[in-house]
């Protein structure tokens, strides 16, 4: 018997070996799905990863009394052709290895649910009508039409069908006449006929019906490459420099200021790849961005463009996956991070727009991969494929790689049509609060600027990087603050629903009428979330048409599109949002942007706080003045003297990068070191504390001072599980595969202790 190694969608290390029954061998090949048994009664859909494989001979061991290994057989092969291409399987293996995650977790993240179940996907079908074979000649059809003269409705529908099917002259109708396919719905819409009339024609056996798989994808858009906008001088220069850099580098960084027209450069590069018969993967960090750029790309590339992200239904994602495996795949895929897992037959270019964005990093569940890194590795698996990273605020790692010559570097310093970068005014709200000059969270200067913009018929954006109404509520009498019973966080107040919610586990409770500690009724919100900002700005500008963009208002697929379209078309003129609004959105009439509280970002306890603050503030500022005159940004802060604030004001990325680089070098952080966070979770705090101390001690025996901790993270209990974190700082050039080997060996040795049977341990490699 032959054997195959199978990937199962389970969080378990390694592959599973199954026997291939006699007669099934020709059907089994690497990349096909198979149905296999596991345990006493379970069945899973697995992917063949290795075939054929040799199993160890256990005859001698069995003779010596050892238990003989019995391999179960594959039940069924589900595919005639592989659903996983060789490059995808290599990418899965790389992600599992680099991010120290079981390959089964990668399988779960990569494949749409409909492909992970034996009957999980049902193709969409539509009911069609056609002329019965008996009447596909002039004589028979004419006789039938004469017999139907009293059934006027049926006759009208039959005549409409013939017209839709392309029959211009009944006298020329023969069995060989080519008829256009007509759906029952189309026929009913044209004739306004009821289902009863259609049924009458079916009973007469003049028309017959049949089902046909039609799919859920839109194929109607036509490509118009001539609709590409010509590049201006600065864009054309950058485009040519990119091509030169790509000749010597697999990865090139395009550092272009906000509104410099990077998207137009991408479009020209995509067109060049298509002309070379290559496919393009275009990654964006937010689904909201795909909404805005889809129309622009469809105008140029039409039905050659496919869109793939988590807001699409699972059935739609299955069909896109299958189309990518077909003889006519999409030439261009636009999507969020999960699009990196799609099959590509002839990938030539990967574009990662807003490459600095933390949204490209998967946090939970595993695998905790970074789509930017995975996409770069994917491109390298295709001969000649190149990767372009684009952003106005590069990540420290990418810019450092470009400075070192590992990546190519192209800089675009002029905005489109030479529009000036927005003027940034810093407002010291610490002094204004002391002098009682603030209106809630709004400074007089900000309110004045917004008022003037709205009066001119322009738009404004207010940025607050916290959703909800208030970060917490508090009893003003005794100081009681409601907290989540399962997590170490206070509950966020959502006024619209009048509930307190945990943003970690989803626990909710009604806002109490009285304090449970002192029975005071004076319970108020503290701090400002986007919902409260919306409430307060409405009282200042009751005539404004206000919209809010945060996680609470964009839970559905169409919510993004509605909010963005309403703001783009002027149905709303004041947009309040979290970091979603900082990510490359393009609005013509925005003249004022308000950053309400820079300190909430700057004071976050993380080594990347300044980097992410600089990026976010610069990106939000870049939404102002993109078309027409120079925009204005009001940056409110209590820390106006910080160098990073002045670097944002000057849009001086190089100075910011240089100053932060020395700090990173001194304290052993990226880009000079790789970080690995080791998390331990257990319901019992004493157990997780003991496990953390033991694991930290074992790791220090191998890695020495590279190990920090264990420590409690900022949120030390989530979903009833207590958490400890160990940090490894690994210098560039270290034998990384050996590090992973040591980590697994140490953990395996420790987990033999029965005390840690329920302990959860996972890794976050290159955390953000």
Short description:
The chain is of the alpha/beta class and 768 residues long.
Plain-language structure description:
- This protein is α/β, with parallel strands linked by helices and 768 residues long.
- The protein is globular, with a radius of gyration of 31 Å.
- It is built from 23 helices and 31 strands.
- Strands 11-12-10-13-14-9-15 form a 7-stranded parallel β-sheet, sandwiched between helices. A 6-stranded parallel β-sheet has the order 16-26-25-17-24-23, with helices on both faces.
- Helix 5 packs across helix 6.
- The model has no long low-confidence stretch (mean pLDDT 91).
Write the layout of secondary structure elements.
Blueprint: E1 2-7, E2 16-20, E3 33-38, E4 42-53, H1 59-63, E5 76-77, H2 86-98, H3 103-110, E6 125-131, H4 138-147, H5 152-165, E7 182-183, H6 184-191, H7 195-203, E8 207-213, H8 233-248, E9 251-256, H9 262-275, E10 279-283, H10 287-301, E11 305-308, H11 314-325, E12 332-335, E13 347-353, H12 371-380, E14 386-391, H13 396-403, E15 408-412, E16 423-428, H14 429-434, H15 444-455, E17 459-463, E18 472-475, E19 492-494, E20 499-501, E21 508-510, E22 523-526, H16 530-540, E23 546-549, H17 557-568, E24 574-577, E25 590-595, H18 599-602, H19 609-621, E26 632-637, H20 643-650, H21 653-666, E27 673-682, H22 685-703, E28 707-711, E29 717-718, E30 721-731, H23 736-750, E31 760-765
Parallel strand pairs: 9-14, 9-15, 10-12, 10-13, 11-12, 13-14, 16-26, 17-24, 17-25, 23-24, 25-26
Antiparallel strand pairs: 1-2, 1-4, 3-4, 3-5, 6-7, 6-8, 18-22, 19-20, 20-21, 27-30, 27-31, 28-30, 29-30
Helix pairs in contact: 2-3, 5-6, 5-7, 8-9, 10-17, 19-20, 22-23
